[in-house]
Amino acid sequence: MGNNIFQPKLGQTDYTNVRWAPVVSCVIKHEGKILLVKRSKNMNLYPELWNGIGGFLDDGKSLEEKVREELNEEAGIKESEIISIKHGEIFDLDDQAIGKTWIIHPALVEVSTDKIVLNWEAEEYRWISMDELKNFDVTAGFMKIVGDFFNLPEN
User: In angstroms, rounded to a whole number, what is the distance separating the alpha carbons of residues 125 and 118?
Assistant: First the structure.
């Protein structure tokens, strides 16, 4: 497990020890490929697994604002580089291993750039095609999100 202790900012909710936690999970798309980021080994949850860009819905910001904020913070994608944001169907994902149920708000974000600047939360990134996705060890729920947006059959 990582060693990062979350310090909530004013107006922010700490979901660290809460059973149900709302999150946004973004699939980033650019010219037919999707972005995968490998979570840092220092992350408390799902270290070294591949994922999209996401975060807790832990303040008063709208879903749209949160998507833009997470893309900027975690991938260096500016608001002007976002072409479109499409929201998917919200679903719950129960992870019994950590005793948490994620309330996942999926978003498909098309961007005009493939230039990514990672923050501390990830250690590497790749732009991949859909058929390459099966070769990566991704976080719980990410395959469902991608499958729902791109009408892929469930395994």
Answer: 8
